[in-house]
Specification:
219 residues; alpha/beta; 10 strands; 8 helices
Amino acid sequence: MIETYPTPQALAEAAAHAVEARLVAGLRTHGRAGLVGTGGRSPGVVYDRLRDAALDWSRVVVTLSDERCVDPDDPASNVRLLRERLLSGPARRAHVLPLWPAAEPAALAAIQPFDAVMLGMGEDGHIASLIPGDPGLADALTTADLLHSVPAGLGKPPVARITLTLSALTNARAVFLLIAGEAKREVVRRAQAGADLPVARLISQSRTPLRIFWTPDGG
């Protein structure tokens, strides 16, 4: 299940190629495609490679796995990362569905199942903003609702957040988990062995084969 790449650059090339292939398939089969992006360090280089893909980006809808409730120009904003690293070049023609300040559950539901979901993972086993310690986590891992609000005080930075639920994240044609470093690989091993972590729920409940891209170079 874990695919190993020698460098972050090699991982980014492989992940971008895999995401592009799923978007191409969605456009060919359904006339549109839905991409769920993610924040953090790992996806930036993937976005740099994906933004020049020869797709009809005007028929691609891009949203996020989660968002911090900060100004869209704040350095902590995930949509800012999308705009700076993905939504330039040919990909600037894509349609964006932000999660904050006004998420659109009906619009999100309309592009499900997502063609490609990109996720990172924290060393605490969190994915998106499904974070251990959140008093609402159990509901976010089991509800059929698409969105979950996370109170301030969790994660880095410890600001309020909005996240797709586990049900929403797994309602996809392909899910890609991007991780780097030995510590995160060990978290995945623990999850595969049955540790009670959000990423373990992703591994066990994904409705499509989950690809985990890993590089030993944690940066």
